[in-house]
Amino acid sequence: MSVLLTRAAGGRAAVFEGLPGRLTIQSCPVSDLAPGEILVEVIGCTLCGSDLHTVEGRRQVAVPTVLGHEIVGRIAAMADAEAWDLSGSPLAIGDPIVWAIVASCGSCPQCQQGLPQKCSHGVKYGHERATGRRIFTGGLADICLLAPGTAIVKLPADMPLAVACPAGCATATIAAALEPAGDLTGRTVAVFGLGLLGLTACGMARAAGAAEVIAIDPLPDRRARAAAFGATVAVEPGFLAAHPAAGRIDLSVEVSGAPRAIAEALDHAAVGAAIHLVGSVAPLGSVPLDPEQVVRRLLTIRGIHNYAPRHLLTAVRFLADHGQTFPFASLVERWYPLDQVEAAFAHAVGSGAVRVGVRP
Ligand SMILES: [Zn+2]
Ligand SMILES: [Zn+2]
């Protein structure tokens, strides 16, 4: 059963206006739903590294904005009588859901090309300038207004919030990063960078049958977590050269963005290997590339940015099957109420926690 909103409603949102570390809680109205829209009550939202960079003033965004894109919500109202999630399940009021970071139009050249994350008319949750019907597009709020064309996945009722929150960011991005590599059974995979993306890559590669998962990170406490997420060995940058897997890595998943890591991935790739670059989302410098090596060793270098809706479905299925085998819930160090959102950011920046969450 769906419910049509017949009156104006609203909620609180943590608005970022460009001053480092400052977010203000504002009450804003939301008018009646337009066709195709779904109103969601936010259950919780974890703070992604990109949110931290924005609030610290290290990443430019259009302001004012409501940040937060690792969101889990519950359907509060639907404009249309019927709607379905990506697996074809009917959606109803009260369902716990996650949704794709970009709502795409399906008809622009990028959508037609199979890159809906680059839709020219897309709505990117947690990244929009807060204005008009796009105030409630971030997870740091009581509610979120889903635009028509938003790809939704219903969550299993028993999935813990901390496990589900990253589905629409880190987990789906890693699903997109592994998909082009094909069957990983028996393969050797290297993961450069052991934040949430990297730990997810370790777990997903292992669950997909990789024989060896080599985890690389300069920080000892990050390397210490890798085994619980399926890594078979964890080494410091530069130490791969001494590892027996050097020169026979079939797939490198680079999530750190460090040029040195990309160079290391190129150095130790097997013949026919793929190097998937995910972490290079800031200008951290260039990497020397010997094209002869790329040609003679038949290397594939691929960029991955965000993901398509099918990857969100893969992400939720992975978390449903393996979200408790690997200790994802332990990665959210603390939850804050929405009115303490500044403290949540201060904690996340100061502590080095993998994730800090905000719950309305
Ligand atoms: Zn993110
Ligand atoms: Zn489009």
Instruction: Please name the CATH topology of the largest domain.
Output: Quinone Oxidoreductase, Chain A, domain 1
**CATH architectural category of the largest domain:** Alpha-Beta Complex
Q: Could you tell me the strand content as a percent range? A: 25-35%
Rg result: 20 Å
Query: What's the number of extended β-strand segments?
Result: 17
Helix content: 10-25%
End-to-end separation: 25 Å
| Distinct ligands | zinc ion
**What is the total number of structural domains?**
2
Task: Report low-confidence residues grouped into runs of 5 or more.
Answer: 1-8
Task: Write the H/E string, N to C.
Answer: EEEHEEEHEEEHHEHEHEEHEHEHEHE
List the helices and strands and how they pair.
Blueprint: E1 9-16, E2 23-30, E3 38-46, H1 49-55, E4 70-78, E5 96-99, E6 102-103, H2 109-112, E7 123-124, E8 143-146, E9 152-154, H3 161-164, H4 170-178, E10 188-192, H5 196-207, E11 212-216, H6 220-226, E12 233-235, E13 249-254, H7 259-267, E14 269-277, H8 291-296, E15 300-303, H9 309-322, E16 332-337, H10 341-351, E17 355-359
Parallel strand pairs: 10-11, 10-13, 11-12, 13-14, 14-15, 16-17
Antiparallel strand pairs: 1-2, 3-4, 3-8, 3-17, 4-5, 5-9, 6-7
Helix pairs in contact: 4-5, 4-9
The chain binds zinc ion (ZN) (2 copies).
One zinc ion (ZN) binds next to helix 2.
Give a brief outline of the structure.
By secondary structure, the chain is α/β, with parallel strands linked by helices. The protein is built from 10 helices and 17 strands. The structure holds zinc ion (2 copies).
